[in-house]
Specification:
86% of the residues lie in helices and 0% in strands. It has 4 helices and no strands. The longest helix is centred in the first third of the chain and has 36 residues, at 2-37.
């Protein structure tokens, strides 16, 4: 009996983890869309300065992820968009 109960609990936790990951992805996507739609001039100018100073793209993406709570893909897309505007 305890083996079956443990299995059920594990399955429920796995399902819960997948639901949380899905919600997190949706929130990050929403955050990225909001960031892309608004003109956050101080943030963009900071990133442009980092690019012009020759900072590594990985460091810039890490900075952006910390500042805006974006996912890796969204942060890279945002940095690439700013790079293309230079």
């Amino acid at each position: 009996m305890t083996g079956i109960a443990s299995l059920v609990i594990i399955i429920a936790l796995v399902i819960y983890i997948f639901i949380l990951q899905s919600k997190l992805s949706k929130l990050q996507e929403k955050q990225f869309k909001n960031l892309s739609n608004q003109n956050d001039l101080p943030l963009e100018s900071k990133i442009k300065t980092m690019i012009k100073n020759g900072q590594k793209e990985v460091e810039i993406i890490k900075f952006l992820r910390q500042e805006e709570n974006l996912g890796m893909v969204q942060a890279k897309q945002y940095v690439d968009r700013i790079k293309s505007s230079l």
